[in-house]
């Protein structure tokens, strides 16, 4: 039996979208592939309000995170981290031998714009790495406010990991003046895992041209050439392109305001449930709208709870890394509807004898 995914990725994929993946492959330099690529690009541009280059990457999101590290800074990165995915970006800088300093915020708390301003005022940095929705702690960082601060420093580029917020929270890439934003398809975009996308500005490409040793697979100059041709850098997963083409059309049809409202409703319901029975992990006012991180105040055995949920055809997420068992995470993103969240919460109450 399939277990419905209330984990923070991968998420449920609509049947029609999954079926798109079984289409026969076409040559990746063919007219069909080029038309398909062009259609996906223009839908991503609409989704993010980004008029500039879009990269389509046959990799999980972490590949593009590494791409940013290889291409995004000519001097020194400031990696802003409030959880495991921010830490990952910082670690990728280290492993690529890139100069970087971390601005570390306590797990469970959000990044404050003032902290970013103070760090940038040192004049040491030409690029900021920021996680929008920190999936490990359930924090949604105040992106608009932070972007406004970064714009006070015209030569500093802001790169955003929006892996678990794109297609749930509205993001105005051009309006916010971001320089790069990346997302995998297996979170709120609700497509099978293995593919990711990114919006960048032209000045990112200009900077990349002057940087040595950009690597090959995630060389943004090569990705830019591919964007212009509407083709993959190497052989892309055309299965994902087909699925993404349909799923983006479905998302744009639902409309982003409606989609964000649906996510906010599911999050509010889950938070209310969690506050009555447990406590929330993230600080008040900055809770994610795609997942709820719950403080496991009752010491519930999460694997055992999941065994019981499995019998009902569902699975939730344990805490991430060092937060395992101390917290657990209920994801409500992508295809999941409020009724399904209600059903899940009812099951948990029943299993734990909380009702
Ligand atoms: C899931 C996730 C990632 C990693 O994505 P992959 O597609 O597994 O590489 C990175 N950042 C955030 C915020 C995530 O939620």
Description:
By secondary structure, this protein is of the alpha/beta class. The protein folds into two domains: 4-10 and 255-352, Aspartate Aminotransferase, domain 1 (Alpha-Beta Complex); 16-253, Type I PLP-dependent aspartate aminotransferase-like (Major domain) (Aspartate Aminotransferase, domain 2, 3-Layer(aba) Sandwich), CATH 3.40.640.10. The chain is built from 13 helices and 14 strands. The protein has helices spanning 15-20, 31-48, 61-71, 84-95, 113-120, 143-150, 173-176, 202-209, 220-229, 238-254, 256-277, 302-312, 338-352, and strands at residues 4-6, 54-57, 77-81, 100-104, 127-131, 133-134, 139-140, 157-161, 180-184, 196-200, 279-280, 291-295, 314-318, 327-331. It has a seven-stranded mixed β-sheet with strand order 2-10-9-8-5-3-4, sandwiched between helices. β8, α7 (173-176) and β9 (180-184) form a beta-alpha-beta unit. Pyridoxal-5'-phosphate binds at residues 9, 60-62, 85, 131, 133, 135, 161, 163-164, 184, 187.
How are the SSEs ordered, and which strands pair?
Layout: E1 4-6, H1 15-20, H2 31-48, E2 54-57, H3 61-71, E3 77-81, H4 84-95, E4 100-104, H5 113-120, E5 127-131, E6 133-134, E7 139-140, H6 143-150, E8 157-161, H7 173-176, E9 180-184, E10 196-200, H8 202-209, H9 220-229, H10 238-254, H11 256-277, E11 279-280, E12 291-295, H12 302-312, E13 314-318, E14 327-331, H13 338-352
Parallel strand pairs: 1-13, 3-4, 3-5, 5-8, 8-9
Antiparallel strand pairs: 2-10, 6-7, 9-10, 11-12, 12-14, 13-14
Bound molecules: pyridoxal-5'-phosphate (PLP).
Pyridoxal-5'-phosphate binds at residues 9, 60-62, 85, 131, 133, 135, 161, 163-164, 184, 187.
